[in-house]
Design a protein that fits this description.
495 residues, mainly alpha, 0% strand
């Protein structure tokens, strides 16, 4: 059996699941401040040591300082993402994922034992560093080890794990939203981080990364472990040819591309997943963040990826989640609104499961277009619900918006980043895209409350406009990557 015909070999799935423990930690950091947030910064006894002699009951902060403390992890995310490309290129995907857990472990524990706001904020920033670096390293690793037939499903696992982390942090936060138990909620992120630190040692390094640093034998062994009991010759030939050129691939693998019969030639070409260097061009050195904008082809790819990441944040998911509490308070009691916020997270979870099922059936582009059209529609309905004070419409619109976002706009930009970018440019493009994503995340977190205070529900007109522009951009500029080789995708950018 050819390895190209495999879909989900067990060891590959195991490595993907272990890698996505980092995404779970990312989600936990995002969701951990949702439910116990009030008791963390505005409890009855303030900084007095009533419940514990060692720690104050809470960390008194005004609204603006608390807003910064919660979103401080975005600052760490920006820094981690920006430098993540050079880190994963130098140390490899596997080591980067392993040692990235130190930020979650130290940051989580620091938040748990914080005695003043400064300690809490530093803990959030440390967690953010790991969130940013993990946002780059995990999708890269998953994309590089996955079979082509399951690449979409495996790629969606990254977002799926984030959503599970957010959901569990919200559910666990309910019984921990009291003094002094709120501290445990922030420290719990250390558990999945410690688990990944040890479990990741049992996973292989990305064979594509090993080829890129000329460790060919290790790359072949790694690929064979990921594709057990199959013939990996064709896949490995394509992997080497894509990065080192046809002549090198023939010498290294002992295969000749002409030996592939004509019936198989098209399907084999479709499997070449990495690099745009073919023929006799030879090895391409890894590009840095300046070089990707000097090369016309990679610049076009980079700008497309950057646009998708900017859209993911400016389309307003975080703002809708922020506003959802106000919406639920219009229709439900304060206590019930807490549970409705968790229901919203459950909708997010269920929609990501749907994306997991559909991504390799429908393709990336149709799901993205449906998601952007849905986000536009439900943003408009949010405005109508606000203007006419229709509580039921507002609630339905929040759920509809979350569903639309989660099936496409949430997972697909991260997936496309690794799918459309050749290996020699993937770290630099991924790093700048990740940094941009976290920068936009921070911008929305800081600016939306001010905008909302000024124009209230009409602020969702901004997001409706962004979603409409996103739909047009996707329709005109974003290629379908399902079942296509990276070489073929890159050729599309040349036109």
């Amino acid at each position: 059996m050819e390895s190209l015909d495999l879909k989900m070999p067990k060891y590959m799935v195991y490595c993907v699941v272990v890698a996505c423990l980092g995404s779970f930690s990312n989600g936990w950091v995002i969701g951990s401040a949702n439910v116990p947030g009030e008791v963390t910064h505005a409890c009855e006894n303030g900084s007095a040591h009533v419940s514990s002699g060692a720690f104050p009951d809470c960390l008194p902060m005004n609204t603006s300082l608390w807003g910064f403390a919660v979103s401080a992890f975005c600052v760490g995310g920006l820094i981690g993402g920006l430098f993540g490309g050079s880190i994963q290129t130098k140390f490899g995907r596997k080591k980067t994922i392993i040692f990235n857990n130190l930020g979650w472990i130290l940051g989580g524990l620091l938040q748990g034992v914080a005695v003043n706001p400064a300690m809490f904020i530093v803990g959030r920033i440390l967690c953010g560093l790991s969130c940013g670096l993990g946002s780059l390293a995990t999708p890269t690793y998953v994309g590089e080890i996955s079979t082509i037939k399951a690449r979409g499903t495996m790629g969606t696992c990254n977002q799926f794990a984030i959503v599970i982390g957010i959901l569990l942090a919200s559910v666990v936060g309910l019984p921990l939203a009291s003094v002094p138990l709120w501290r445990i909620n922030y420290a719990l992120v250390a558990i999945p981080a410690i688990a990944q630190f040890f479990l990741m040692s049992g996973c292989v390094e990305s064979p594509r990364y090993l080829v890129s640093i000329n460790r060919i034998e290790e790359a072949k062994e790694s690929l064979q472990r990921l594709r057990p009991n199959t013939n990996i010759d064709k896949e490995f030939f394509g992997m080497v040819e894509g990065q080192l050129g046809t002549a090198a691939a023939r010498v290294i693998t002992g295969m000749d591309s002409a030996s592939i019969n004509k019936d198989d030639a098209k399907s084999f070409d479709d499997q070449i997943e990495d690099g745009v260097v073919t023929g006799e061009e030879g090895v391409r050195e890894s590009m840095n963040m300046i070089q990707i904008f000097k090369d016309p082809l990679i610049r076009r790819i980079a700008l497309t990826v950057l646009a998708l990441h900017v859209i993911q944040q400016l389309i307003g998911m975080n703002a809708v989640m922020y506003y959802s509490t106000t919406i639920f308070n219009m229709s439900f009691s304060a206590e019930m609104s807490k549970y409705m916020a968790i229901v919203t997270t459950v909708v997010n979870f269920a929609s990501t499961v749907l994306s997991l099922i559909l991504i390799d059936r429908m393709g990336r582009r149709p799901l993205l277009l449906i998601a952007e059209a849905g986000a536009c529609l439900f943003s408009v309905l949010l405005i109508i619900g606000y203007v006419y004070n229709l509580g039921a419409l507002l609630v339905v619109s929040v759920f509809g918006y979350v569903l639309s976002f989660a099936i496409g706009v949430g997972p697909i930009p991260w997936m496309l980043t690794s799918e459309v970018t050749p290996v020699y440019a993937s770290s630099a493009v991924g790093a700048i895209a990740t940094a941009m994503n976290w920068a936009m995340n921070f911008l929305i977190g800081q600016c939306f409350p001010i905008v909302f205070e000024g124009i209230k529900g009409y602020s969702f007109a901004i997001f409706a406009g962004v979603a409409a522009l996103a739909f047009a951009f996707t329709y005109l500029k974003v290629p379908e990557t399902k079942g296509r080789s990276l070489e073929d995708i890159v050729k599309g950018f040349e036109k």
